[in-house]
Specification:
72 residues, mainly alpha, 4 helices, 51% helix, globular
Length: 72
């Protein structure tokens, strides 16, 4: 996760990456996260820190997560 906020990656960059990953939805599915993040530690971090979505089961809201990354 540190790589997401290292120099050269702006909040907008990370937001756009998650939006693309989510096919322009406000949430990203657990299946998509599992396919994309092969590192189990990274996958677990995302699942534990992204708020769950009310729109779909096993889905996570990415915008609040990105905001929290850059507010630390």
């Amino acid at each position: 996760m540190k790589r997401l906020v290292e120099p050269g990656h702006t909040q907008e960059d990370v937001h756009v990456a998650f939006t693309d990953l989510a096919d322009k939805e406000t949430y990203v599915t657990g299946a998509t996260l599992t396919r994309t993040f092969m590192n189990v530690d990274h996958l677990n971090y995302l699942r534990e820190n992204m708020p769950p979505s009310d729109a779909e089961e096993d889905a996570f809201e990415h915008a609040p997560f990105v905001e929290s990354l850059f507010s630390r």
